[in-house]
Amino acid sequence: MNVDTITRRAIVGETLDVLGPGVTSRFDHVNALTIRLVGGALSSLDDARALSGVQTLAVGGPDGQWEVLSFANATLIDTGIWRISRLVRGLGGQDELSTRTLSAGAPVILLDEAVIPLVFDPAFIGDEQTYRFYDASGDYADELAVEVTAPVRDIAMKPYSPVHPRARRIPGGVAINFIRRGRVDADGWGLTEIPLGEDREEYRLEIMDGSVVKRAVNSTITQFLYTDEITDFGAPQTILRLRIAQVSATAGHGFARTHDVFIN
């Protein structure tokens, strides 16, 4: 089965300096990155286009994870060498990747039309697939074809982590609420509520004591009344550590984010 035809070379390269930890959901004003590219060119964008991820770059770490980032400023400083700044970090839901420190020499790839998805069917998640890459004018069995086996991962299907948790003490317990995010048509600022993007609405909320899960619940709404504070901790708390993820029928638990929240 022919998956697709790639009609242009991908623009790849490497970092020339360290990429330190940065913020998400807004511009990283601390870090900038110098990269060497093989072919291709970058361009500066206005802030709105940079925040919307029009031009994105993936930076690989030694753990095999790739942070996707956007950038507003791109300056050519030598042949094939670019300095990018006003970075927008941890795109695609993987906020935690923006907390890494990556050494110089990390691989980079520009995520443009030359980069295509290989699997469209969620039924293949968790399987290993073997692909053969060959010249379009040639044959599948060409001795120059390159064969690669790779697992099918669910990263592009995982729900983003909910944000902005709040905790308020009321009669009967601690009222916890948060705001969900979405992958699908979720950028409209005029919307009363963004589309769910899932077959059903469900969240996983874990109440932590350090790294220990004291209580875990599932909820079908973005609110929860925590009534077991004394049972779990022995006394009223001033701060709760919450780990929250949205649940997908296709990809299971989405990306989780941990928050230390003051109880008002």
CATH architecture tag of the largest domain? Beta Barrel
Helix content: under 10%
Rg result: 22 Å
**Record field, number of beta strands:** 17
Gap between N and C termini, in Å?
58 Å
- Structural category: mainly beta
CATH topology of the largest domain: Elongation Factor Tu (Ef-tu), domain 3
Please state the average pLDDT score: 91
- What order do the SSEs take from the amino end to the carboxyl end, as H and E? EEEHEEEEEEEEEEEHEEE
Gross geometry: globular
The number of helices is: 2
Oligomer: single chain
> Mind describing the biggest β-sheet?
6 strands, antiparallel, barrel
The strand line-up of the biggest sheet is 1-3-6-5-4-7
Describe the structure.
By secondary structure, the chain is mainly β. It folds into two domains: 12-111, Elongation Factor Tu (Ef-tu), domain 3, CATH 2.40.30; 163-262, Immunoglobulins (Immunoglobulin-like). The protein is built from two helices and 17 strands. The chain has a six-stranded antiparallel β-barrel with strand order 1-3-6-5-4-7. Strands 12, 13, 15, 16 and 17 form a five-stranded antiparallel β-sheet that branches. Strands 10-11-14 form a three-stranded antiparallel β-sheet, with no helix packed on it. β15 and β16 (252-253) form a beta hairpin.
